[in-house]
Amino acid sequence: MGWKDLGKKCFAEFVGIALVMLIGNSSVVIGVALGGYNLWSIGMIWGIAVAFAVYLVGGISGAHLNWQVTTAMILRRKMPVKDGIAYMISQLIGALVGGGVLVYYIWEPYIKYFEAAKGIVRGELGSELTGMFFFTNGPNPAFRAAIGWPYEIISPALWFFAEAAMAFVVVLIIFGMTDERNPARPGGLGAAFIIGLAVAIVIVAEAPIAMCTIGPVRDLGPRIWAYLMGWGKIAFPGPRGFDCWIPTISTMVGGVAAAYFYDFLIRPGLPKTEK
């Protein structure tokens, strides 16, 4: 692939994930700070945003939108490593801009008012309740604040496993919905809808534990911006000193595992394509 074509694809990845993050993180602000949405609504908004992005840029770049999908494509679909790295850089920047910069400046007055009303000091313990507008945490800060959960209720192992499992489910569905050998996959652009629905469902299923990251850049990009905007040690390394790495590593493990699981245990049972 030439650099010009790669540039177009990378820009598409940037736009796609920026759109997802802008809509998704905005829904978290509205749900937590304004009380406008419940968990089901937030999950559906994230899922619809993903479907929108796939419809918008899927024809250009394939709409990977996150590192675990691109890594799976490198390992299992012969995507060139240099192209994959370029995709991943574009995705990280897009998530930072969409889910960090744009969300922060659009919702800044509401965030500051919420902090004042709740007595939250940005960068201190407790500010993960507003940090969740940008990055994920386990246990879910909104549920922890409402119910009074201690941090210990969600162990690092449980957090890692829950995040890996949900990333596994989403990537497994992506591979199934985009496999030309799968006769049950929806025709036309139906795959985008199913993938978006899968995202919505896993968010609703796992968000009470750790907000359901699904992919690294959904957390890491906005987390970088939040660190710069005053969340400091709550963003890096996190309230317990290790939190910042669990969403990235767990979702990469889950996503890549799903790709191998699909190719070795599901795809062999599909009809062979005619040559």
From TrEMBL:
Organism: Candidatus Terraquivivens tikiterensis
Coiled coil spans: none
Record carries keyword Transmembrane helix: yes
Cellular component annotations (GO), alphabetically ordered: plasma membrane
Protein name as it appears in the record: Glycerol uptake facilitator protein
One Gene Ontology term of the molecular function aspect: glycerol channel activity
Any Pfam family the entry gives: MIP
Database matches in InterPro entries: Aquaporin-like, MIP, MIP/Aquaporin
Family: Belongs to the MIP/aquaporin (TC 1.A.8) family.
Keyword annotations of the record: Membrane, Transmembrane, Transmembrane helix, Transport
Location in or out of the cell: Membrane
Chain segments annotated as transmembrane: 12-37, 43-65, 85-107, 157-177, 189-211, 245-265
Membrane topology: Multi-pass membrane protein
